[in-house]
Amino acid sequence: MQIITNKESKWLQLLLNNSNVGILIVDKNREILLVNHHLCEMFGYEENELLGQYSEKLHASYETSTEFAKQAFDFLLQGKAVEIEYQLKKRDGTLFWAHISGDTNEEYNEYVWTIADVTQRVEEEKSIRAKKERMELALFGSKAGALELNLLDAAMYYSSQWKRMLGYKNDELPTLLSTWENLVHPSDAEPLMPKVQKAIDAKMENIEITHRLKHLSGEWIWVTSKGLIQYDSDGKAFSVVGIATDITKQKNIELTYVQQGQIIEQIHDSVVTTDVHGSIITWNHGSEILYGYKADEVLGKHISLIHLEEDLDSFRINIESVLKYGEYNTEFRAIKKSKDLIDIDLSLSLLKDEKGKYTGIVGYAQDITKRKKAEAAIQYINENLQKEVDAQIYEIREQDLRLLQQSKLAQMGDMVGMIAHQWRQPLNAISGTVVNLSLLSKMAKLEPQIVEKSSSFIQDQCQNMSSIIETFINFAKPEKESALFKISHAVDESMVIIGAQLKRHNIKTAIKSTSENISIIGHEDLLEQVIINILSNMKDAFDDSTVQEKLINITMRRGAALSGSNVPIIMIEDNAGGVPKEIREKIFNPYFTTKEQGKGTGIGLYMSMKIMKERFDGDLIYSPTDDGSCFTIVCDGVR
Question: Which of 82, 338, 546, 598: disulfide with 75, CB 3.0–4.6 Å?
Fold first, then answer.
């Protein structure tokens, strides 16, 4: 029978694990590659305790393992399959006898072993041999035990060999009918005596009965008793003399065949055997389910009835391959009785008789139609997945850009007020200068140097106003290209935009840096947006605070103590009282705001967090202080 690893055929795993023999595959170094469920139970191990171990683990000792390897190697040198009965060791140290069959898989340089526990048979054979020796002495070579039933007084005679057959000594069983009645299996006892009586009533001379008797060990043995009924001159039966033979071994073999047939019949996959000409010999229940034909509809017919006509050439090639190599695995389209097409995974092996002559082919087939459809669906998904991912990424990117622009627009509304406030002072100064020039002109006191000085002053004020507008325009522009910039410059530019508004609210700011050359690569305008967002939120926090001296401290330094790596950080602290504990975890959520309706969008801190994580590979961290809040901007990309 073909042995196929789990890598080659998933469906065969069920067949292996339901086998009534242990199956073991090792490589040339005797490392265990595969075991089935029955083998694990036989030895008392879990599967993972055996895989990757050496087969010496299953032997009684290193010496017995070496001797077994020598015997097996001698078989292989003679070109024979290995057939050995050898003593092995279970996990708990118990030794047992096993029948070991095996051969090599030269293609993969592996050895395939089937192991059956034959301890009971070996022990029974030992017992039988001992009994046989005693029987030969007692009955001069007779292989059967004798017994006689006296029908007149129900007395029984049991020969010493009959007693030994059941494990008893000659003086251990009383010569009574009840002795036999107590030893016979309950399921067999009821029909036996009526059968004897029926034979007597029919004046039969010979009778044969098969039943089980209880051995001294407690086990049941199968016995065939052939008896001669003796009649007197009046035709009345007076005695039944019989010879009993132990047939337990034959019964066990028959039972094994029956169990193997039941296993094959219960397998959900198809198992079909044909002769060498392709005529169907066996057709299990799994085949009936798979192909739709009942066994009596196909037995004797050619196996080509389940093949498409256009696939017959491939079918012949498959047969040639199995005849050449002894086994073959393929996939093909099969046609059911209903004319539906199904995809089949097929494994073929040659059947041989006891002389090694090819007698037919056995095929194990599994329906893989669903798997094929799933594979096609997965292939389609894989081909189209990248397009869908790209589309989703594009949509997320566009949404982020919209939120980013929305955040900027929200800030720009506040900046209009900032610009108006910052322009008011230079406009007043220009207006005063113009009025002063006009008065001097009317008084005839306007001198050239006064005009030149006033003109220079007006130009300076206009330049200052232009600078404010330029900063505002740069902030309002779409995202710039990534470039190297100093974080101190980003802080200064942010203060140009929002600084005047902070002063108008009587908020003092202090800026300090441990280094003037802390630089990063990124989008400077985005970092400015984060800083302005934080400062704007702090300004609003002071509106709800009763603190007299309003302070904001901005510190720039490297953050080895904070993040474990030497990255730039900007710490912005205030003394506005801090964020209430119950909402601290929510402040970075989108659209969460504590401001009155219409005064806040709730996306400022959310977008600031996204900017730092996604654009600067950094972070934005909130932490409470004794009298306010601290926002730590963590940047990456140090230069």
Answer: 82
Residue 192 in contact with residue 209, Cβ under 8 Å?
yes
What's the pLDDT score for residue 565? 65
Model confidence band, residue 630 (pLDDT cutoffs 50, 70, 90):
very high
pLDDT in tens, 490-528: 898 888 878 877 888 899 999 988 776 788 888 888 888
pTM recorded for the entire structure:
0.34
* pLDDT tens for each residue of 565-586: 678 899 999 999 988 888 888 8
Dist. CA 182–CA 218, nearest whole Å: 12
Are 588 and 606 in contact, with CB atoms under 8 Å apart?
yes
Distance, in Å, from the CA atom of 119 to the CA atom of 84, rounded to the nearest integer, reads: 13
3-state secondary structure of 1: coil
194, 200, 201, 205: CA torsion to nearest 10? 130
- Compute, in degrees rounded to 10, the torsion defined by CA atoms 555, 560, 565, 567: 20
DSSP string, 239-263: EEEEEEEE-HHHHHHHHHHHHHHHH
Give pLDDT, residue 629: 92
User: CA 68, CA 98: separation in Å to the nearest integer?
Assistant: 12
Rounded Cα distance, 434 and 425, in Å: 14
Tokens of 485: 């910039």
Angle at which helices 524-543 and 487-504 cross, to 10°: 30
Torsion region of 439: left, alpha or beta (phi above 0 gives left; psi -120 to 50 gives alpha): alpha
